[in-house]
Protein: Undecaprenyl-diphosphatase
Organism: Actinoallomurus spadix
Amino acid sequence: MNFVQATVLGIVQGLTEFLPISSSAHLLIVPRLLGWKDPGAAFTAVIQLGTMLAVLLFFWRDIVRIIGTWFRSLTNKELRGHLDARMGWYVGLGTIPVSVVGLVFNKMIEGPARNLWINAASLIVMGLVMMVAEWAGRQKLEVGDLNMRDGLIIGGFQCLALIPGSSRSGSTITGGLFLGYTREAAARYSFLLSIPAVVLSGLFELRKVSEGGLPVAGTAIATLVSFVVGYASIAWLLKFLVRHSTLLFTYYRVALGGVLIGLLAAGAITAT
């Protein structure tokens, strides 16, 4: 992996990790279209640490407050009903489903699932599900209205992100919309919920760098670039969702999925 390839993949990761259009799908599609080698699922998981660092920096005040309040609530009963204390539980427990499912289906995710037919289908299907959520959701609830049931349900939606082409942010934001949360509220909880799962996944795959399974320099460059671009993407998306719907991303997903199916059917690119 040369400098240009690492930079391009870092930009792709930073742009698509938080936009509900699937970073894993784009990190598979872009190299295939450009004639590069598949960087692999481990590379994808590791450079996500860059975008997670962007989340940590962007929401650092919220994160410090949540962690501090959660720890104090363990001994202070008066704090247990506080939103920050509850958010600590929601994020922690909401991460369990995706962690368990990810470990159980790890080999499938890193192998057979990296198929462009699957990615194309997921892009389209999840895009249509997002459209339904946009139309059906009441979009009246804010982050402060979040409860344990909703936190766990959205955590369950995060499991859909394990299907290549689905999108982590797309899956969790869709879950929030179905439950009646505003787009911005759903996005904010989505970003916070993604931190433990992505960090654990990235650290789990990071061992492959020392084992020689990943290019050290290329992975480092891509991770750094994804951090810078990812930070800008978070800021843009939160502002965008205040005034606009998610339908733009639905149209993009369906169009991209359709183009992929066309290219695959014509034999212009291979599925694996």
User: Anything to note?
Assistant: The CA atoms of residues 107 and 156 lie 20 Å apart. The chain has a mean pLDDT of 89. The chain has one domain: 3-266.
